[in-house]
Amino acid sequence: MTVGPARRRGLGSEVADMIREAIFDGGYPPGSALREVELSEALRVSRGPVRDALRSLEREGLVRAEWHRGATVAELSLQDVAELDSLRGALEVLAVQRVVATGASLDEISAAAAEMERASTPHEMVRCDIAFHDAVYAAAGHSRLTQAWEAIRSQVHLFLITRVRLSTDGYLEQIREEHRDLVAALRLGNVEGALKLFAEHRAHAFDVLTSTRGITGPKR
Asked: Membrane-spanning residues where (predicted)?
């Protein structure tokens, strides 16, 4: 058997990108219905690509589909939050260790932190936060570690969107300050100190999500 010619990127992938961006911009908050008919009309495509897009986003963990409710933007349960936080933490330990141990360039990480100075809304800041961690994984120089991060990246983005929906009090400056400190810790080359600050950074979002004001529903 021989392979055939490569297919061009499908319309479903483009539709998935547009729906994903709308979710990340806050246009479709967690729990929002994603109706095929409405989406196909808004995006001026047939329902087939929309259906394909929703399946793709379901695999990413951004969308949940239930026969009696249809497709909705995923709402994180306590178990979702705990699992994402613990897995993200485990991945970041290896990423930070490698960045420090290999003496990796911190230029892209620093640039990502500097970009936060221009973020003016919580959703813009969440994007900057994700971009910062993208840069950390890239600097780690470990392709399978990067793939593991990319597998949960959309869900972590949803995690952070959920966090800012619950509280934005002092959020923008807090995130700027935390990431300035993270860059400084990486520059010092102190693994223990850097890991401590990365853990504290994750804990702040986790605490908001699991406080009495946060997620209190049943585990999935």
From this structure: none
